[in-house]
Amino acid sequence: MENIAISVIVPVYGVEKFIERCARSIFGQTMTDGVEFIFVNDCATDRSLEVLTAIIDEYPPLSSQIKIINHLCNRGLAAARKTGLEAARGEYILNLDSDDYFERDMLEVMYKAAKDTNADVVVSDYFMTTKKGDRYQECPLYDTREAILRSIITPWRYGNKTIGPSVWNKLIRRNLYTDHSIIPIEGINYGEDFIISMQILYYADVITKVDRAFVHYNKLNSDSYTQDKSASNCRQRLKATETVAGFLARKGCVFDEEFDERRFCEKMIAVTNCDSADLGEFLPMYPWLDYEKHKQLIARHWRLPYKFALQGDRTMFVFLRNLLLPIRRIYRFIYDR
């Protein structure tokens, strides 16, 4: 296929329950001419690949435009996206997740916006899909590059109104990846999109916005990276934060206060969810952070436990944490029904 407009990259792993809906929403797009569909099988152990190939058989006109690349072993989300980028030939790249699904005219509308404005990046809104249904999430595009970057680092400063770090609501000119050697870092699967998006947005000359939602971001997949707050994933989030902070510092962008707020929040997420044995790793991190300065970033009922933790009283912290976590789980169960 010549003159490829869009390369759609979809990692596949552990999505047996969701891949059919995802694939049909992609293959049923109003724009398929000039589109290549790249699925990267990250050594899935369930029936994800079997389901996907069965769906592909139902779309014979698209067969020449669909490619499945198989990893020999499970390497993680970042590696799967890297493999997809290396294989992509399109003018623009759209990274999608295989547990999400998409509005039928997503590719057509976003590509038209890109061509009409000669955009390097096209951003859209999205739907948050929960048990209660779809909730529209607005992603405002701020006037300056600095404001865009700041809103992603510290979304709470902007009322959580931001275009976000996710790559799946951004159509990106492939040359941005190739010209600036922007590639996912294998091993950082939680936060890898933060690293990629911040570099892409820094280098982009023209960023435009479509005021519509196309992606149905699935919060029902309990196996997704975003649902996992394990110590391993917390380490990856922290590493992602430091990677972006280092990149922007080298470019002369000083966001010290914003990154300290983000570090504080990431550290609190880690100590909230990690095993007691891992507290000794996370609590000493960032000793310069001031609890009194940043405590307004956390819920009131967590402030006293965190204060004990940061003062070195791990026993009292663990006791209070063990009281609060079951209450939080009950609240979320009731709220999400």
Task: Note the topology.
Blueprint (H helix, E strand, L loop, with lengths): L5 E7 L6 H9 L7 E7 L6 H9 L9 E5 L6 H11 L4 E4 L5 E2 L3 H12 L3 E10 L2 E5 L7 H9 L16 E4 H6 L12 H12 L3 E12 L12 H20 L5 H18 L5 H4 L8 H4 L5 H11 L3 H23 L1
Parallel strand pairs: 1-2, 1-4, 2-3, 6-9
Antiparallel strand pairs: 4-8, 5-9, 6-7, 6-8
Helix pairs in contact: 1-2, 5-7, 7-8, 8-9, 12-13
Describe the structure.
- With 337 residues, the protein is an alpha/beta fold.
- The protein has 13 helices and nine strands.
- The chain has helices at residues 19-27, 48-56, 77-87, 106-117, 145-153, 174-179, 192-203, 231-250, 256-273, 279-282, 291-294, 300-310, 314-336, and strands at 6-12, 35-41, 66-70, 92-95, 101-102, 121-130, 133-137, 170-173, 207-218.
- Strands 1, 2, 3, 4, 5, 6, 7, 8 and 9 form a nine-stranded mixed sheet that branches.
- Helix 1 packs parallel to helix 2 (48-56), helix 5 packs antiparallel against helix 7 and helix 8 (231-250) packs antiparallel against helix 9 (256-273).
- The longest helix is centred in the C-terminal third of the chain and has 23 residues, at 314-336.
- It is globular.
- The N and C termini lie far apart (46 Å).
- The model has no long low-confidence stretch (mean pLDDT 93).
Which structural traits does this protein have?
13 helices, 337 residues, globular, 9-stranded mixed beta sheet, alpha/beta
Low-confidence runs of at least 5 consecutive residues: none
Described by strand count, sense and barrel closure, the largest sheet is:
9 strands, mixed
Q: Strand tally, please?
A: 9
Structural class: alpha/beta
Strand content: 15-25%
Mean of residue pLDDT values: 93
Count of discrete alpha- or pi-helical segments spanning 4 or more residues: 13
Indicate the overall shape.
Answer: globular
User: Cα-atom Rg, whole angstroms?
Assistant: 21 Å
Give the helix proportion (percent range): 40-55%
For this structure, the quaternary state is single chain
Topology as H/E string? Answer: EHEHEHEEHEEHEHHEHHHHHH
N-end to C-end Cα span = 46 Å
